Amino acid sequence: MMSMSSIKSWNLVGRIGNISTMSSVCRYKMWNFHRVVVVVLLVLCTNIRTINSELELHDSSSNIERCRDVIDLVLSREWGHTSLVASSPGDGRNLRVCQASESSCCTRELEQTLHSISVSKFQQDMQVASSYIKFMISTNKVRFQGEFTDIIQNAENRTHTLFKRMYPFIANQMKGSVIDLHAEMKLYYQGAMLNIDRTVQDFFSYMFPYVFQYMVDGSLRSMYDNYRNCLMRESLQEQIKPFGDIPERSAKQIAWTLEAARLTIKSLNLALNVIRSTDTLDLTNSCSRALLNMNYCTLCEGHVSALPCYGYCLNVMRGCLASVYELDTKWNEMVTSLTAMIGNMYGRYSMEDAILKLPERISDAIQYAAVNAATIKEQVYNLCGEPHRTRRSVHVGQPTVAVITDRSMPLLERSDIQVRLRNFMDGLASSEGFYSRLPESVCEGLNLPSLTAECWNGIDVDRYDESVVGSGIGQQIHNPEVVVAMQRDMTVTKLMNELASLTSSLNRATKLPDLPGPRHESWFSDDDSDYFIEGSGSGSGDEYDDDDDYRYDNTNDIDSDIDIVFTDTDPDTSNEIEITVRSQQNKPGSSSSNILSSLNVISASVIAVTVLLQHLNFL
Questions:
Q1: For the segment 533-551, what is each residue's pLDDT rounded down to a tens digit?
Q2: Are 313 and 450 in contact (CB under 8 A)?
Q3: CA atoms within 13 Å, Cβ hemisphere of 70
Q4: Distance of CA 615 to the CA centre of its chain
Q5: Could you tell me which of 160, 137, 151 has the C-alpha nearest to residue 414?
Q6: Which residue, 203, 182, 216, 188, is CA-closest to 386?
Q7: 8 A C-beta contact, residue 412 and residue 147
Q8: What is the pLDDT of residues 6-24, one digit of tens each?
């Protein structure tokens, strides 16, 4: 029989065995749990790697697609071969300007190509902004050049016709002088350094001996050179003033008008040169980099349709055009002065009145000398003595004084050129402030998004939050996009000096000359319609034949002729000399016509009596 101690020992061993069995079970269960956890974790990791791979594949596909859009754009605009564009985003850190992100569709070669294109685009944008002003100036310059030249040519043609029809006895002698006078007008208008005032007065001085011979003395068929030189002396003509103040007045009018016309064309040429120079102005390195970033770095990010923000564009343009802005004040001053001068090219100082009516003033001068013949002859005799004369030299010819009525050469309509001048002045005035508005004009021409819209801000497609700086060099110190040197461009400085010099000339020319004496009333009507004559504006003035007979259309303007005709016999040759003094009477109807007719009759009668007394040896 077992003892109690043995029984207790056996129970203890049993309990220990049970505990051991339970521990083994727990260890088995924990092992299974760990296995499950490991399996789950392995599954999760596998899925995560798969998801990441799919995401990476999606991103890569999207980037490749964006670079393909860039390739299509490069091909469509013919910027180069597809090799310029990365087939998939590459490292953008090797680019010089377009470094907005680490991955880029651009290669270094594409970036260089886009840099050149951005400079060309800027120049094109500048040309578009200035296209209206250039068109207005260039078309008006060509038009005014043609009209001014035609007026001078028409004046030459009319002067030839004046002498041919009204003063045929001196037409041949004055023909060369008329050609020279108008040739120098053209040269002066085209820029030659001539004293046109002196040229015009010399023309009248050259004409005086012939007028004295045929209109004042009336009895000289020929004249010795020494006597002719005495009559042409400047001191003599200043003293006796055979043509009154007509030469001086005409010279001042013509000189001012030609100077105004010349300065007008010179101003338009300079204006075109200024605009063309600023259209193609050399850009600084900072400006060209900013233009590249603004216009084309979006492509490197794959944003083929994104446009720059308006404020971003303004900062770039104001930085690039900071030096050009300095031209604005000088440009405005030139425009103001030119407009003021053109405004004075009206009335007595218009091209039509000063130059086209020169033939009428020449005739006025001749008639002035004829009316004052007695006084002029006496003064000439006192200063030069009496000319040598013989009986054979007796010859008198009195010109016909009549209004030219042929209408085969229409003159330039004054209203037309005045309207064109006024319209041009209005258009020119609108160009004031052109250079101060130029940055806005360029940006507005790009049709950019508004200040609040999402757009390319130089880094990403988003809002542009930088402050927009003002215009001018002094404002660019705060420009966030362009680094601007605080000194003016040399080309701009040169243009400013040229504008300032021209403005000074315009201001001097704006002051009208003081014309001597009271305004001269022409022997002719003030109506331009009375002065339509044969020829054309492009002719040379040499087309008439010296053997033409001089006929007048006097159906409407002339009532009757008064011819005083008498004959004498040359004692040396026994040839009969016929002396004719002719005058014409205008139809009654106006006081000026009646006065002119009376003067003609009196002048013709006096000359006839003088010649008759000379033939009878009473004088």
A1: 333 334 444 433 333 332 3
A2: no
A3: 30
A4: 66
A5: 151
A6: 216
A7: yes
A8: 555 545 445 555 555 555 5
Is there a contact between 499 and 116 (Cβ–Cβ < 8 Å)? no
Question: In angstroms, what CA-CA distances link 613 with 152, 394, 535?
Answer: 45, 12, 43
Q: What is the CA radius of gyration of the chain?
A: 48
For 102-141, the pLDDT digits (tens) are 678 888 888 898 999 999 999 999 999 999 999 999 999 9
Residue 35 burial (CB count, 10 A): 10
Q: Which residues of 325-335 are buried (b: 16+ CB within 10 A; e: fewer)?
A: bbbbebbbbbb
Cβ atoms of 403 and 557 within 8 Å: the answer is: yes
Q: What is the DSSP letter of 384?
A: H
Residue 314 to residues 150, 303, 375, 431: CA-CA distances in angstroms? 47, 21, 77, 21
Q: How far is it, in rounded angstroms, from Cα 17 to Cα 549?
A: 163
Query: Residues of 314-324 as b/e, b for ≥16 C-beta within 10 angstroms?
Result: bbbbbbbbbbb
Cα–Cα dist 176/162, whole Å: 14
Burial class (CB in 10 A: 0-12, 13-18, 19+), 424: buried
Helix (H) or strand (E) holding 247: helix 246-279
DSSP state of 308: B
Poorest-confidence range of 56-65, 144-153, 222-231? 56-65
- What percent of the chain is predicted at pLDDT more than 70? 65
- Reduce the DSSP state of residue 90 to 3 states and report it: strand
Residue 543 CA: distances (Å) to CA of 35, 88, 146, 183, 421: 123, 80, 21, 16, 32
SS3 state of residue 89: strand
**DSSP assignments along 540-601, one per residue:** -S--S-TT-------TTTEEEEEEEEEEEE-TTT--EEEEEEEEEEEPSSSHHHHHHHHHHH
